[in-house]
Amino acid sequence: MKTVILHVGAPKSASTLIQNMLADNQDQLKRSNTYYETFINKETPLGQLAYQKNISNNKLNKIREWTEKYNALNEQQIIISNERYFGNSYDNFSDIKPIVSRLRYVFKNFSVKIIAIVRRQDTFIESLYCQNIKGNLETRTFNEFIQQIDIYSANWLKLLSYYEDKFGFDNIGVIPYERLLLHNIAFIQKFFQMVGINITINNLPVVNPSLDIEAMELMRFANTFVNDMIKRYKLRKALENIFPKSVNKPISLFTQEQRIQLMSEYRKSNTELFQRYMKNDNINIWYN
């Protein structure tokens, strides 16, 4: 039986970097008897599992038949990466349960392992807001944004429980995103070790560049007053070149009081999360 490794997110947790590293090292993956599925979007069969609200049993059966192509490959291991498998972060991850059920059904004839990367919830929410601005969608202030979403929906322990229920505890591996900030190459090597591949990495590409806080505010105002989407895009690209944000210098949008309250609310579930899935990491990287 072939093995499918599902890298399922979470969102805003280095998915683009991992996907780029997988795509750039396909020769090494092949030497390790591994195939990487490079193309997934809303219209492809694997993308439909995450993006479509309702999927008929007939459609699910067709997607399961489609996955049989992997059994014709020479490689014994298949890696599939899509952070949308963690659910829609803009809708409080409300669709994760049916997504997990679909994945279990579609890959019934494969051995499946799950890899998730999760980050502390305060910086996740801040990053989600910034991504909205960069996507030319967000016009709200940060305080307006957090008042209109459920900031307590990012309970990674609860969300991972859906995967554990369908795929089993022994088939789930979790990495804290903060490892990337401590040692970026070691972070990527840890991911590849979890899929059974030893890889030599000298440097990492810059992907999905961020804006500093002043540029972010300029972009938010542009989203309000500039109607032409092409002009907004060109402005964003210019700001990325002029006002880039360092990876090791996160944007701080919560007040200190808000941050303490938020992370205090998550403390119990996060403690259980580390004890259950990340025993080799110290929860203090989220609370310091």
Question: What is the secondary structure topology, with strand pairs?
Answer:
Layout: E1 3-7, H1 15-24, H2 26-31, E2 34-36, H3 45-51, H4 57-67, E3 77-81, H5 96-106, E4 111-118, H6 121-134, H7 142-148, H8 156-167, E5 172-176, H9 178-182, H10 184-194, H11 213-225, H12 229-242, H13 256-277
Parallel strand pairs: 1-3, 1-4, 2-3, 4-5
Helix pairs in contact: 5-8, 11-12
Write up what this structure looks like:
By secondary structure, this protein is α/β, with parallel strands linked by helices. The protein has 13 helices and 5 strands. 50% of the residues lie in helices and 9% in strands. The protein has a 5-stranded parallel β-sheet, sandwiched between helices. The chain is globular and about 50 Å long.
CATH class of one domain: Alpha Beta
CATH architecture of one domain: 3-Layer(aba) Sandwich
- The side-by-side strand order for the widest beta sheet comes to 2-3-1-4-5
Mean pLDDT: 92
**In the CATH scheme, what's the topology name of one domain?**
Rossmann fold
Count up the helices. Answer: 13
Q: Tell me the strand percentage band.
A: 5-15%
Helix/strand-derived class? alpha/beta
Coarse morphology: globular
Uncertain runs with pLDDT below 50, 5 residues or more?
none
Order of helical and strand elements: EHHEHHEHEHHHEHHHHH
For the record, what is the CATH homologous superfamily label of one domain? P-loop containing nucleotide triphosphate hydrolases
Rg (C-alpha, Å):
19 Å
The percent of residues in helical segments reads 40-55%
Number of strands: 5
What oligomeric state do the depicted chains represent?
A: single chain
